[in-house]
């Protein structure tokens, strides 16, 4: 068992019945600096210009990683939260669709995508598509938790780093 796991709270039936939610709040409260280092250190930082943080916990983790490594930060938000001009990407959820947006990028760059949990992979695939449309070359993916039993996500040649795997 990874030492971080003792700080992750399992919340049954959240946000809906049958789901066991992995609450990382206690982990961030007790070991935030160690979490950021564990997510950041294995990455090829000489090949990365920006950190792309995915709403909302990806903002927390990604902004801290960008600060630690002296890189810029690019937020990806849900539809209607960023000022124009933006590009959008819709993706399927188990109960419908959602849309993510990114401000249009003026210059090419190399990025790492950061999020807290990889579940089905729909969000990450949508963000990868946004980056491709926006002159941003995805060099790596960094996740705190990968729920490997849920996803059929294929990294498609992109290095995937996750601290915890279930």
Count of individual helical segments = 3
State the share of residues found in helices, binned by percent.
10-25%
**Number of extended strands:** 9
The CATH topology corresponds to Rossmann fold
Identify the CATH architecture: 3-Layer(aba) Sandwich
SSE pattern, N- to C-terminal: EEHEHEEEEHEE
Summed over residues and divided by their number, the pLDDT gives a mean of 93
Query: Approximately how much beta-strand content do the residues carry?
Result: 35-45%
Look at the structure and give the CATH class. Alpha Beta
Task: Describe what is shown at a glance.
With 166 residues, the protein is α/β, with parallel strands linked by helices.
Describe this entry's structure for a reader.
This protein is of the alpha/beta class. The chain has one domain: 3-Layer(aba) Sandwich (Rossmann fold). Helix content is 25%, strand content 38%. The strands form 2 sheets. A 7-stranded mixed β-sheet has the order 5-6-4-3-7-8-9, with helices on both faces. Strands 1-2 form a two-stranded antiparallel sheet. A hairpin with a 2-residue loop joins strand 5 and strand 6. The longest helix has 16 residues. The radius of gyration is 15 Å and the shape is globular.
């Amino acid at each position: 068992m990874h030492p971080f796991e003792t700080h992750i709270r399992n919340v049954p039936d959240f946000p809906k019945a049958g789901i066991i939610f992995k609450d990382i709040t206690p982990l961030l409260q007790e070991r935030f600096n160690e979490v950021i280092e564990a997510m950041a250190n294995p990455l090829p930082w000489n090949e990365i210009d920006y950190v792309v943080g995915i709403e909302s916990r990806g903002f927390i983790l990604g902004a801290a990683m960008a600060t630690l490594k002296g890189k810029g930060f690019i937020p990806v938000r849900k539809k209607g939260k960023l000022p124009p001009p933006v590009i959008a990407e819709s993706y399927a959820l188990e109960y419908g669709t959602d849309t993510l947006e990114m401000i249009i990028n003026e210059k090419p760059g190399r990025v790492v995508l950061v999020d807290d949990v990889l579940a089905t992979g729909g969000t990450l695939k949508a963000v990868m598509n946004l980056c491709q449309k926006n002159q941003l070359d995805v060099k790596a993916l960094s996740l705190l938790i990968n729920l490997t039993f849920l996803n059929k996500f294929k990294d498609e040649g992109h290095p995937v780093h996750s601290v915890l795997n279930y």
